Every structure is written in structure tokens, then in C-alpha cells.
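Pipeline run #58 for the internal structure catalog. This entry was flagged by the ingest filter as a single-chain record with no existing model, so it goes straight to prediction. Upstream metadata was stripped on purpose; only the residue string is passed forward. Reviewer on rotation: M.T. Logging verbosity set to normal.
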Amino acid sequence: MSVYALTGSIGMGKSAVAAMFRKEGVPVFDADAEVHKLQQSGSSLVPIIEARFPGTTGPQGVDRQKLGAVVLGHPAELRALEHIIHPAVARAREKFLRRYRARPMVVLDIPLLFEKGPPSSLAGIIVVTAPAWKQRRRVLRRPGMTPAKFKAIKKLQLPDAEKRRRADYIIDTGTTFERTRAAVRRLTACLSRRAGR
């Protein structure tokens, strides 16, 4: 099994590209979705998060707006949260890899791949990119997003140009949906053939 990482800065269209890989039959592990699951009501992590960050959880689990306000722009608090969340995400990722070990290739969708360090034994890194103006427009359309919050998030992320420099493969979402989907299909076919050798 060949394991590829998919990453990209906020608003670059990574989730759309991940969905395209799934449509091509490639199993995709979504780290963000796993984090959401771990923060829902009933998760064993919710009481741990509440103990460390009082007032950030409720009947539905973690209140992401409240928790974000506590950790965004506060590196020590963000690290404390990561120490709670990251080990659980890593365990879920290992379970995913075991489940799909017979497949020729899988994709790990990891937003902060470069920032937090990539997992070992990757066959390659796929970076999703788009022009800065399009990224900004997409992000500011999100509910609850502000220019200041967007700026704070970008400060935590490696610049897009550096991510592209470190990439093995690049998917451009600054073009039409159809062209991006065609690029994903071509890359899937190429990587599947390579994995089959």
C-alpha cells in the first residue's frame, strides 16, 4: 500500500479535492473530520478538554467557537490542546491504515502536515493550491470568519509558496471544477499504476 498525504492552507479547496479522490475510489482519512468526531458529545476527550479549558464544552460537546477564542493566538494554549487531540487522531489514522492495508493506495488528508510534521513512510505529498485572492474570498465567506481571524489562522500555517516547493504533486483549484477534477483523475491513475508495480 502506498500512502500519500494531502494538504493545503485554509481555503485552498483541499476538502473538495479529497472528495474527488474518494469518488475515484481512493480511501481518504480526514484528520479534520476525526477531530470533529473527537469533540462531539460522548467522546472521551470532551471531559479532558473541559478540565483543561473550562467553559468550552456543553451538551453537544466542544463549542468550537469558544475553544477557538481560547487557543487562537495563544501558542501555549494551542499546544496544550494539541497534546490532548493529536494522540487520538494518530490512533484513528493507524486504524484506518490497517483497515485499508490491502488497497494499492490511500490518502491522508492532513491540513497541518508541514506545520506538525508528516507521518513516516509517505510515498509522496500532494499540495492543493489556489491564488491568494481566491483563498481569501473563500475563507471570508465562511460563517463566523473575520479578516482578523483569517490573518491569525494564516500565521499558524506555512506559506502556500513553501508548501508548493515541498510538494511532490500539486493540484490547482484556482481553475474550474472540471479541470481540477480532471487533474485529480490523472494523478489517481498515475499513482495507482505506480502503486501496482
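catalog note: The two ends are 11 Å apart (CA to CA).
catalog note: DSSP finds ten helices and seven strands in the chain.
status: ready for reviewer M.T.
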